[in-house]
Amino acid sequence: MTRGKAGSAWRRRCCEGRRRWGSPAGVSGFSLLLSAHPAQCVMMTYHIREYRPGDYETVRELFATGMSEYVPTLCIHMLKQPWVILVLTCTFSLLLTSSKSLLLPILAVTLLLAMGRQLLGYFWSMYIDRCLQEDLLDIQATYLGHKGSCFWVAEVDDCVVATVGARPSEEHHKELMLKRMSVRKDYRGLGIAKALCKIVICFAREHGYCSVVLNTLMVQHEARAMYEGVGFRKYHHYVLPTVYGRLASCTVSKYRYDIPSAD
Ligand SMILES: CC(C)(COP(=O)(O)OP(=O)(O)OC[C@H]1O[C@@H](n2cnc3c(N)ncnc32)[C@H](O)[C@@H]1OP(=O)(O)O)[C@@H](O)C(=O)NCCC(=O)NCCS
Question: Transmembrane ranges (predicted)?
């Protein structure tokens, strides 16, 4: 999940202000001057356009890959939970006092950690599968069948490298929900996600929505920083009201970007 901050800073310094905003539903072109080394700047252009049926597999794969990257961060989050620390400490202490050997408690704790990692990976992939069976099952019908919703991809050299969707929120019909933001790992830190956010905001403004809203999970630190950088503000957060949600302190943060009224 980490990115080389020094390299990224250089890449950002290299980015030239040659972006142009097109119609949110149409195609927008963005040129970025990129380089791994100051002496070798190369030009990369990415385009943002509406989703086409041929993007189906890539979009689903981008989403699944982006989300599956969170397993290590989730493991660290779980290891910070008081009940997990208690279980591991008690197991270690009990086995140490009963066996009078270090080997058994170390093996037992390692086994528990490995099982926990597998279990977490399993539940997380179930969550990803559920998303793939919801709005991402028929992207065309969910996002492009109505005037008030849309799905975009960013492509570099005809290759889709990022995605975002937007559809009316279930809670408030004047709110547009931003969903399925994902950028391929090797194209991160270049401003593609921020550009996609701005496309969604433009779309919301053009379609008369009063705000853009989105949900993030407690482990999505980069995403939260990115949304805040665009101007989204956190307005609510809660722990998922399920057994698993409480066990994992699974916190959902809701963000909003208010569209200023035209008058
Ligand atoms: C979150 C994500 C979409 C960001 O994409 P991106 O194209 O790298 O983001 P951008 O380059 O447009 O924006 C960069 C901003 O994101 C934040 N950011 C990105 N990576 C970061 C990192 N490793 N550490 C801290 N902040 C980070 C910063 O605010 C940064 O702004 P800055 O460049 O001014 O410092 C991308 O990391 C991703 O696809 N993650 C996996 C899927 C996911 O979490 N989606 C969000 C679902 S809510």
Answer: 102-124
**Residues with C-beta less than 6 Å from any ligand 1 atom:** 2-3, 12, 66, 69, 181-183, 188-194, 216, 220, 222-223, 225-226, 229
Atom of ligand 1 nearest to the CA of 5: 23
Q: What angle do CA 1, 107, 245 make, to 5 degrees?
A: 45
E-strand ranges in 51-192 read: 150-156, 159-168, 175-183
Place of tokens 């660290």: 76
pLDDT, tens digit (0-9, with 9 covering 90-100), for 198-246: 999 999 999 999 999 999 999 999 999 999 999 999 999 999 998 888 9
Antiparallel, parallel or unpaired: β 175-183 and 233-239: unpaired
- The band of 21, judged by pLDDT with boundaries at 50, 70 and 90, is very low
- 94-106: average pLDDT: 93
- Per residue in 114-167, pLDDT (tens digit) is 999 999 999 999 999 999 999 999 999 999 988 899 999 999 999 999 999 999
Residue 215 alpha carbon, nearest atom of ligand 1: 48
User: Which residue puts its alpha carbon closest to atom 36 of ligand 1?
Assistant: 183
Dihedral pair phi/psi, residue 27, rounded to 5°: -110, 135
The whole-number pLDDT of residue 73 equals: 95
From the CA of 86, how far away is ligand 1's center (Å)? 34
Report the C-alpha gap between 247 and 254 in whole angstroms: 20
